[in-house]
Specification:
alpha/beta; FBL15-like; LRR_FXL15/At3g58940/PEG3-like; F-box/LRR-repeat protein 15/At3g58940/PEG3-like LRR domain-containing protein
């Protein structure tokens, strides 16, 4: 039996749950196979039926002795703290969610899993603590663990890294010379977050919050860069917009720039033109607009309202071949941006794709004609609508 999968009835009454634990013990005690490729045990997460840690520890010991080439998943709640024991010589994939000790987590990754290739961590530490992840085998790491005081990652073969910074002052030190994909969610502050040895050319850089936009300045070249920007009045309209300008004044050379923008305040054309000035080497630009129903006008003193913010004579888009815009509504600002784009120096622009997240109404056809009349004649315009009324459904070309 290369795999053993034991799943409890999540809706069972407490007596049934207790009998399930006994059934697991019996199944593992009766297993004569010298090696297993997979062991999966699903427990109820009902707070009224907590699983004692002493019942789980023997299962982990069994796994450590039998795993040949496998993955492991441990999901716990605050009533269960696991202390994995033994050496997991063949373990290549590990997922841990729930409550763990910082020192035990470090020890597990650094000393007990010599062949670990993929590691996903989520949940919380029992108390504020430091976590060290030193590995010569790790290729992929996802880290989202609260109560982390200091995180040190030293991984010579790490290629994919996803980090969620859950506190502003979590100290993070990363050494990953072969890093190719980085996904960063949360704030970024170079005083606390440092890259000591990381490749300067990434295949993917994904930044999930505006507060981390300045992270782009750490790299020289990115094939695909994804930025999520939410510009609002949270810190004062002028202060926030200036922060956006400073954070993105220097951007790496990239082939594709994908921007998700949530803004009801600053001029769309000014925001995108600034990104064009900072990143003019891209071949494709993708813009996803998220509207929240609140529309405000910036004061005339805001930097996004100045004449310089809308200048196009200092923008060279000589490499740009395709632009894609997705929006739930096409407002005058979107049409203005298309008009400004048509006047920019984008000599090889071939295609403009509009994803209008609405059914094929007469209004959609009217907008399509406005877009086509604005673009140069040598630019192919593809206009898509969503008959089911949303971006999650199928899209059809409106012709």
């Amino acid at each position: 039996m290369p795999e053993i999968l034991l799943n409890t009835n999540l809706e069972a009454e407490p007596p049934a749950s207790a009998s399930f634990l006994d059934a697991v013990d019996g199944a593992l005690a009766g297993c004569l196979a010298p090696a297993l490729e997979r062991l999966s045990i699903t427990l109820s997460a009902n707070p009224a039926m907590p699983t004692p840690a002493w019942r789980v520890v023997p299962w982990l010991r069994f796994a450590a002795e039998r795993w040949r080439a496998s993955s492991a998943s441990s999901c716990t709640d605050r009533r269960l703290r696991l202390r994995p024991e033994g050496l997991f010589k063949a373990l290549t994939e590990l997922v841990i969610g729930g409550v763990v000790e910082g020192s035990e987590l470090s020890n597990l990754v650094c000393t007990q899993c010599p062949r670990l290739s993929s590691l996903r961590l989520s949940g919380t530490l029992v108390a504020f603590a430091d976590v060290s992840i030193h590995s010569d085998s790790l290729h992929s790491l996802s880290y989202r663990v609260s109560n982390t005081q200091r995180l040190e990652i030293v991984a010579s073969r790490l290629e994919e890294l996803a980090i969620s910074v859950l506190t502003d002052e979590t100290h993070i030190l990363i050494s990953a010379p072969k890093l190719r994909k980085l996904s960063w969610h949360g704030t970024y502050d170079p005083r606390y977050h440092q890259f000591s040895d990381v490749a300067q050319h990434l295949v993917l850089l994904e930044i999930g919050q505006f507060e981390a936009a300045s992270l782009v300045q750490q790299f020289n070249e990115v094939d695909l860069m994804k930025l999520k920007l939410q510009l609002s009045f949270s810190r004062g309209v002028k202060v926030e917009y200036q922060s956006f300008l400073d954070a993105t004044k220097k951007m790496p050379k990239c082939k594709t720039l994908n921007v998700t923008l949530s803004s009801e305040y600053h001029g769309l054309a000014s925001v995108i033109l600034h990104l064009f000035r900072s990143c003019n080497s891209m071949r494709k630009f993708s813009l996803e607009l998220r509207h929240h129903g609140l529309e405000h006008s910036c004061p005339s003193s805001c930097p996004c309202c100045t004449e310089d913010s809308r200048r196009i004579d200092n923008i060279d888009l000589g490499s740009l071949e395709e632009v894609e815009i997705s929006s739930s509504k096409i407002s005058d600002e979107e049409l203005e941006f298309v008009e400004v784009l048509s006047r920019c120096s984008a000599t090889i622009l071939k295609k403009l794709v509009i994803n209008y997240e609405a059914p094929p109404t007469p209004e959609a056809k009217e907008i399509r004609e406005k877009v086509r009349s604005t673009c140069r004649i040598n630019v192919e315009v593809e206009f898509y609508v969503f008959p089911d009324g949303g971006p999650s459904g199928r899209r059809v070309r409106l012709d």
